[in-house]
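Q: What structure does this chain adopt?
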Amino acid sequence: VQLQASGGGMVQPGGSLRLSCAASGFTFSRHWLSWARQAPGKDFEWVSTINSGGTSTFYADSVKGRFRISRDNSKNTMYLQMNSLKPEDTAVYYCYTRVWAKNYWGQGTQVTVSS
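A:
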């Protein structure tokens, strides 16, 4: 199982970024996927989850209404569209999934929101 997150970068407050998570090594379309983040000096924070078919999505209150999770099962890829970014969204963002009762994490992509 491999997950590769990408798309991070530096953006000004109010800006947007789209993260991608490319997956391999498992049947992508059968598994729920999630995003989490870790800000400097803070614990991991769950951000969003999407079900296997992409029909149900869940968000942390801190990002609800600003972030949108999606997936393309034909491309084995999950996305996180982040709009109206705030400085407090600055963190390393990770994608993860659970396969065969084990959690798998991507390597993380840095998002920095700063003027």
